[in-house]
Write a structure and sequence with these properties.
By secondary structure, the chain is of the alpha/beta class. Helix content is 28%, strand content 18%. A hairpin with a 2-residue loop joins strand 6 and strand 7. The longest helix is centred in the middle third of the chain and has 18 residues, at 149-166.
Length: 325
């Protein structure tokens, strides 16, 4: 495609989202047009050029500037502000699997889940954090007999193939606190590789599975339901009553999380009659790991039915000793 046509498409895209930061615009445009540019950074560089935000040498060609008001009218220095916009998940029947912790997954719990859901309509699957345990990358004391990171990735690839065989639908991979161990390890042990695309966890995962990776602790919007892994809040979520109540006290909106390996639900009605409900979803991993053999965990998963108007219905299922409750 000629350079002029590429620039024209990018101009129109910028006009559609005039208030978005450059980094977010670049990510969105590259996701929709991966063949037009080499990478996201190339898109971001052209956006800055179109908006007159590049260095003096690149600003000589005024003909490139957009007619629209620039996003930075005062020519402030480029900001490295994080983009924390929610991830919009478009589907009507969503299967949510949290805390699988491969290779410490529960074959019994996963089999029970698959038996129940396989006969139902599913058009998307959300792996809602801690799908891979990343045990050997932990900063805590590690079991030298445990499987290494490469073997965990191989096991995840096998798991993905099984999912696609049962449900040939889009699969979304949310990064949880265990997957974030990879970045922490990279920063501490090999920070020189940070920023190299091939060494990003997203690239490593997508090399093994055709999933869309959701990173940066972004909240997921499934209709009017907010979904998070559960580690996004500073200090996590805790409540002496149940995890869902703790989530309500922090989120104050309809929301669902995993992370705490417990199934719970909490609803409250305000003075205007509006009901807000929060859920926590059980795990699909071992229940008695060596580092915490005594706990209140339980197995579980969730199915979310989402209407076109954003309304939704949650089926939050528990599994006990291989049987669905």
């Amino acid at each position: 495609m000629q350079e002029l046509e590429k620039t024209k498409q990018l101009r129109e895209f910028i006009k559609l989202y005039p208030n978005y930061p450059n980094k977010k615009l670049a990510r969105m445009f590259y996701a929709e047009n991966p063949l037009l540019y080499t990478n996201e950074e190339g898109v971001r560089s052209m956006i800055r050029k179109l908006l007159g935000q590049s260095g003096k040498e690149m600003q000589k060609d005024k003909s490139l500037y957009m007619d629209a008001k620039p996003l930075n009218p005062y020519n402030l220095p480029e900001s490295f502000e994080c983009d924390y916009s929610p991830f919009e998940l478009k589907c009507n029947n969503l299967l949510v699997l949290s805390d699988v912790h491969i290779p410490y997954h529960s074959i019994s719990a996963l089999s029970t889940c698959f038996d129940y859901v396989s006969g139902r309509k599913v058009d998307a699957i959300l792996l809602n954090g801690d799908t891979i345990d990343c045990h050997m990358l932990s900063r805590f004391v590690r079991d030298p007999k445990a499987r290494n990171f490469g073997e965990e990735l191989d096991a995840f690839a096998e798991f993905f193939v099984i999912l696609k065989k049962i449900w040939d639908v889009p699969i979304y991979f949310k990064l949880g606190n265990h997957e974030e161990r990879y970045n922490h390890f990279l920063w501490m042990k090999a920070n020189e590789l940070t920023g190299v695309a091939e060494f990003s966890l997203e690239a490593i995962i997508k090399k093994r599975a055709n999933v869309e990776v959701i990173s940066d602790k972004r909240i997921i919007k499934a209709g009017n339901l907010n979904i998070l892994h559960g580690h996004e809040f500073q200090g996590g979520v805790f409540s002496p009553v149940n995890i869902a109540r703790g989530l309500f006290l922090k989120a104050k909106v309809n929301a669902m999380q995993g992370h705490n390996h417990q199934t719970s639900e909490h609803s409250e009605r305000d003075l205007e009659g509006k009901i807000t409900t929060t859920w926590s979803v059980g795990c699909l991993s071992e229940l008695h790991p060596a580092y915490m053999p005594i706990n209140k965990w339980n197995h579980g998963f969730s199915i979310v039915e989402i209407a076109d108007d954003g309304s939704f219905e949650v089926q939050n299922k528990r599994i006990h000793q291989g049987k669905l409750l």
